[in-house]
Amino acid sequence: MKFYEYQSAMNNTKWEEIKNAMNDCSIHTIWRVQDVKTKYISDWDGDWFYHFKGNYKIIE
Prior knowledge:
Elements: H1 12-24
């Protein structure tokens, strides 16, 4: 399946809700993302908040 054939399952509001929930979480959370276009997978990271840059369309 090509990148342009993907359909987003979440909108920006849902991504913001997840970001806020993770920010309010009292347990240590690690995070990584995969870019649907390039297939790049980030390293696991405890400072996950910078992954939420507002470009949610590329996150798998």
